[in-house]
Amino acid sequence: MSQQNIFVSHGDIILDNIYDENLNLIKQDGGGCNWNDLYNLAQMGETCYAIGSVRK
């Protein structure tokens, strides 16, 4: 029987705004180190959960 790893991360939910040279918004993407780590682990087949918060 193989052991399954489960990864859990908590942190702020960050939205990266990417602009062109004329300061037109061209893309929005989730950012933050912990979210990137979970994304990469999930791409490798690991089970991942994210718990986040948003402040207005």
List the topology elements.
Layout (H helix, E strand, L loop, with lengths): L5 E7 L1 E6 L5 E7 L1 H11 L3 E7 L3
Parallel strand pairs: 1-4
Antiparallel strand pairs: 2-3
List keywords for this structure.
56 residues, alpha+beta, two-stranded parallel sheet, 1 helix
Explain what this protein looks like in three dimensions.
By secondary structure, this protein is α+β, with helices and mostly antiparallel strands. Helices cover 20% and strands 48% of the residues. The strands form two sheets. A two-stranded parallel ribbon has the order 1-4. The protein has a two-stranded antiparallel ribbon with strand order 2-3. The protein has one domain. The protein starts with 5 loop residues before the first strand and ends with a strand. It has one helix spanning 33-43, and strands at residues 6-12, 14-19, 25-31, 47-53. A hairpin with a 5-residue loop joins strand 2 and strand 3 (25-31).
